Amino acid sequence: MNKITNLFNIQYPIIQGGMIWNSGYKLASAVSNAGGLGLIGAGSMYPEVLREHIQKCKKATDKPFGVNVPMLYPNIEEIINIIIEEGVKIVFTSAGNPKTYTAFLKEKGITVVHVVSSSKFALKAQEAGVDAIVAEGFEAGGHNGREETTTFTLIPMVKRNITIPLIAAGGIATGKGMLAAMVLGADGVQMGSRFAASVESSSHDDFKKTIVKVQEGDTQLTLKELAPVRLIKNKFYNDIQELYAHCPQPEDLKRLLGRARAKRGMFEGDLVEGELEIGQIAGLIDDIKPVAQIVAEIITEYHQVKSALAQHNF
């Protein structure tokens, strides 16, 4: 047992990222059933759809699971109320001020975790009373911090500044990566990209196949003027770069982005005009597997590498 397994009452300190268009109840329940903590991604769900996924997740697992709530989305109050009504006991918040809902959620007996990209925001989240921090390096897929701090740098810096449990995210998809994060001071890890390329992920099969094809250097952090996001380079990405050549205003970028671009790419499988969000670690992901197999392989590799390192003599 460690701080994270104790906090969530789970077997392994592995949390699945609550990714939009990937993290429906099938993925969340599969990760929880495999011994980790599954998260439903509320960011791509209308309130009633979220309610349906929570109810289905409760039927699919008797293990703990949570909901990831990006706080910049509309309907946030309705989403929070549904989470409380449905008896969800773990909430991960991101993209907003942790002070807004932390105290309210904790009054309802909910464990609250906040996602940050810097030590400054980690301290603010701790002051707001959250139970744990996810510190996410800029290797991560999807929406990201502007600071471009890598996970290897970020984790020890945040660890030095906080006293509550710390979860590392960004660029972790293997047992080796998990061990490295723990050595740097993390109490657990959050993985997005590895679970996006799973059988149970709710994203389109063509998107999953694209993740497997991604090589080193095929993703890029862009759209910093709006909300930094890491994307696979495709036609839509190239259109963004072409627009940047003409020194665009934020309004020009918003016009190009339009609406539902991420849904189009990840959920509907438009690999040309869609927004394809994935992390740099996709370059190490070579297959689409069931969640149970993914978790088992990560844990096996973690213990093998830990044992092998213990036998090194310096």
Descriptive notes:
With 314 residues, this protein is of the alpha/beta class. It folds into two domains: 3-203 and 287-310, Aldolase class I (TIM Barrel, Alpha-Beta Barrel), CATH 3.20.20; 205-281, no CATH class. The protein has helices spanning 3-8, 25-33, 47-60, 76-85, 102-107, 119-128, 151-161, 175-183, 193-196, 205-213, 235-244, 250-257, 261-267, 291-310; strands at residues 14-16, 38-41, 65-70, 90-94, 111-116, 132-136, 142-143, 166-169, 188-191, 219-222, 229-232. The strands form two sheets. The chain has an eight-stranded parallel β-sheet. A three-stranded antiparallel β-sheet has the order 7-11-10, with no helix packed on it. β10 and β11 (229-232) form a beta hairpin. α2 (25-33) runs parallel beside α3. It is globular and about 55 Å long.
Q: What profile does the largest beta sheet have?
A: 8 strands, parallel
* Alpha carbon gyration radius: 18 Å
Structural class, please? alpha/beta
What's the end-to-end separation, in Å?
29 Å
**CATH classification class of the largest domain:** Alpha Beta
Looking at the structure, what is the overall shape? Answer: globular
Total number of beta strands: 11
> Which stretches are low in confidence, meaning pLDDT under 50 for 5 or more residues running?
none
Q: In percent, how helical is the residue content?
A: 40-55%
Task: Domain count, please report it.
Answer: 2
Briefly note the CATH topology name of the largest domain: TIM Barrel
Would you identify the CATH architecture of the largest domain?
Alpha-Beta Barrel
The chain-level mean pLDDT equals 96
- Count every helix, treating DSSP H or I runs of 4 or more residues as helices: 14
Q: Give the helices and strands as they follow along the chain.
A: HEHEHEHEHEHEEHEHEHHEEHHHH
**Beta-strand residue percentage:** 5-15%
What oligomeric state best describes the polypeptide chains here?
Answer: single chain
Across the major sheet, the strand order is 1-9-8-6-5-4-3-2
CATH superfamily of the largest domain: Aldolase class I
